[in-house]
Amino acid sequence: MFCDYYNPLNGTYCKRLRVMCPEHFKDPKVSDTDVCGCPLVRDVFEPTGDFCRAPKKSCLKHYQWEKLRRAEIDMERVRQWLRLDELVDQERSIRLAMASRAGVLGLMLHSTYNHEVMERITKANENGKVKDSS
Question: CpG binding protein C-terminal domain spans which residues (predicted)?
Answer without folding.
Answer: 1-108
